[in-house]
Amino acid sequence: MVEHLTKSELAIMEVMWDQEDALTATEIIKVSGDKEWKNSSVHLLVNALLEKKFIEVVGFKKTTKNYARTFKPTMTREQYLTRKVLGHMKPEEKMNIYKKLLKEIDDPESLRDIKRNIDARLKVLANQ
């Protein structure tokens, strides 16, 4: 099960998921656009996300006088959403969700891609 994120923590994660490069806390503020976060608030949120293991320190970047830590998400947006939705469900409930999602797909190529992924997963499980 994935740990709960506050609204503000999720907003920080959304900013980070939208960026390819690792970001410093100051860069998070700059690229967040319409948000008006204070530096101290972002630092608190970053520390909370580090503690919850949603982000990790991946390096350092020279700022005007000091070095700032750079951060990257530890999971993709899709991984987070999948864990959020399925994390608390029983296996049979998950199976029902998978079946319902498959019924929503009308594109044969998408279904073939899903089948390839299932086949690859079955191979991994067979080799364990």
Placed side by side, the strands forming the largest sheet appear as 1-2
Which spans have pLDDT < 50 for at least 5 consecutive residues?
A: none
Tally of domains: 2
The succession of helices and strands, N to C, reads HHHEEHHH
Rg is 19 Å
CATH superfamily of the largest domain: Winged helix-like DNA-binding domain superfamily/Winged helix DNA-binding domain
Helices, by number, come to 6
Quote the distance from N terminus to C terminus: 23 Å
Q: Remind me, CATH topology of the largest domain?
A: Arc Repressor Mutant, subunit A
Please provide the count of β strands.
Answer: 2
The biggest beta sheet reads: 2 strands, antiparallel
Rounded average pLDDT: 92
Keywords: DNA-binding, Transcription, Transcription regulation
Pfam family, one: Penicillinase_R
Protein name: BlaI/MecI/CopY family transcriptional regulator
InterPro entries: BlaI_family, WH-like_DNA-bd_sf, WH_DNA-bd_sf
